[in-house]
Recover the amino acids of this structure.
């Protein structure tokens, strides 16, 4: 009975989640371009925060002046962030939504296919992967 109770507290991770985490773990660096508010809403907080990331405002180019930041982290930090997102975005029905479920789901739903699309670098000077989350910018931008 305890096993059933413990299992009901788990998240309902989407298909491919574990494979996605394994792929993310192998990345040297990755950047997320996201609004500062969305990052602040979804970043892990508290004493158990395992994510170390560098945040900088975007001041040049077509994404400047939109309130976006570039958050750069290692692949292992992306794994910790994705685990936090998954926990908040996909809670089990019995535990109910969390305060940031909608924001976490939006970020997870953008990061997951972004990680899936990452290909191996062909040259040492290839740019690090970047995942952009801004619904007001067309996908081709």
């Amino acid at each position: 009975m305890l096993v059933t109770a413990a299992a009901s507290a788990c998240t309902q991770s989407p298909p491919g989640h574990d494979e996605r985490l394994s792929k993310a773990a192998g990345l040297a660096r990755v950047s997320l371009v996201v609004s500062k508010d969305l990052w602040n809403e979804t970043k892990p907080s508290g004493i158990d925060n395992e994510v170390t990331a560098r945040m900088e405002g975007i001041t040049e180019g077509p994404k400047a002046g939109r309130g976006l930041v570039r958050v750069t982290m290692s692949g292992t930090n992306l794994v910790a962030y994705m685990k936090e997102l998954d926990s908040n975005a996909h809670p089990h029905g019995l535990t109910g939504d969390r305060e940031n479920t909608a924001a976490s789901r939006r970020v997870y739903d953008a990061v997951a296919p972004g990680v899936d699309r990452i290909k191996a670098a062909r040259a040492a000077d290839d740019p690090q992967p970047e995942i952009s989350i801004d619904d007001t910018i067309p996908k081709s931008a």
